[in-house]
Amino acid sequence: MAIGLEDKKAIVAEVNETATNALSLVVADARGVSVDGMTALRQEARKSSVTLRVVRNTLARRAFEGTEYECVKEALVGPSLFGFSMEDPGAAARLFKEFAKENKNFEVKVLAVSGQMLGAEQLDVLAKLPTRDQALSMLMSVMKAPATKLVQTMNEVPGKLVRTLAAVRDQKEAA
Q1: pLDDT tens, 26-68?
Q2: How far is Cα 89 from Cα 81, in angstroms, rounded to an integer?
Q3: 124 with 145, same domain?
Q4: Which structural domain range is residue 87 located in?
Q5: HEC string of the chain?
Q6: Which residues in the chain show pLDDT less than 50?
Q7: Where would you find the membrane-spanning parts of this chain (predicted)?
Q8: Residues 112, 136: one domain?
């Protein structure tokens, strides 16, 4: 069924808004994936704050104009499933990577982060990015380490004195 001009404009505006707010984009070819598989993928996407869209490439090219995902225009060939990471830059990459392990027909075509297009072979790099909570915990552990070391060092001085006095006492008792 043909899509009317107004509907196309609405789709372009909606995808443009999503692309403007997204942190990263992963484009995949989902030909041959079963309906049950796609339903499972959509459920997992909702859990990880990933917006999935299937849009005609011509409409996607128009929607990406003026966004940082304009760089993927040349890679839009054939059916495309767009995964926009809304909260965590690596969420869509992790989702697509796990889904591709289970579905041999699912193929990642290209990724984009911060206006830079990456090939499908870079999927692991983006998928291994820590989540916000993981990054904050790593930062806090780095910030906490010097204070912990200082407290341990300060505690060692009286501890060493007590051990020395105990050794002297034991030596005098033995004599």
Answers
A1: 888 878 778 888 888 888 888 888 888 888 888 888 888 878 8
A2: 17
A3: no
A4: 5-129
A5: CCCCHHHHHHHHHHHHHHHHHCCEEEEEECCCCCHHHHHHHHHHHHHCCEEEEECCHHHHHHHHCCCCCHHHHHHCCCCCEEEEECCCCCHHHHHHHHHHHHCCCCEEEEEEECCEEEEHHHHHHHHCCCCHHHHHHHHHHHHHHHHHHHHHHHHHHHHHHHHHHHHHHHHHHHC
A6: none
A7: none
A8: no
